[in-house]
Amino acid sequence: MKSESKSANEKDFQEVRCSKVFEAMRQCCLKHKPISLVCDGYSLEPREFAPVTDGPLKE
Q1: In this predicted structure, what is the pLDDT of residue 31?
Q2: Would you list the domain boundaries of the chain?
Q3: Residue pLDDT, tens place only, 9-48
Q4: Measuring CA to CA, which residue among 57, 59, 56, 51 is closest to residue 17?
Q5: How far is the C-alpha of 3 from the C-alpha of 1, rounded, in Å?
Q6: SS3 state of residue 5
Q7: Contact 49, 15 (CB under 8 A)
Q8: Chain-centre distance of CA 16, in angstroms?
Q9: Alpha-carbon gap, residue 29 to 24, rounded angstroms
Q10: Which residues contact 8 (CB under 8 A, 6 or more apart)?
Q11: Is the pLDDT of residue 50 over 70?
Q12: Which of 4, 41, 46, 52 has its CA 20 to 30 A from that of 27?
């Protein structure tokens, strides 16, 4: 039987912690979108993130 509960890593993922990587990808795509298949469909708008929470998530 498959467990339906998410692992601790899935529950604790916070996109804001990857903000530097997202911004680097956005900058790269701003420059190379016309010739890059990787950037096809990638949003060039700056991302907005929820604040970081280091405490446990409340359900």
Answers
A1: 94
A2: 15-47
A3: 566 777 888 889 999 999 999 999 889 999 988 888 888 8
A4: 51
A5: 7
A6: coil
A7: yes
A8: 7
A9: 9
A10: none
A11: yes
A12: 52
Q: What pLDDT score was predicted for residue 32?
A: 93
Residue 6 is predicted with a pLDDT of: 57
Q: Which comes out higher in pLDDT, residue 49 or 44?
A: 44
CB atoms under 10 Å from CB of 33, counted, come to 14
What sign for the dihedral angle of Cα 20, 25, 28, 30? negative
Are 53 and 11 in contact, with CB atoms under 8 Å apart?
Answer: no
Question: Which H or E run includes 21?
Answer: helix 19-32
Name the token pair of 3.
């467990």
**CA 47 – CA 32 distance, rounded (Å):** 19
The confidence score (pLDDT) of residue 13 equals 73
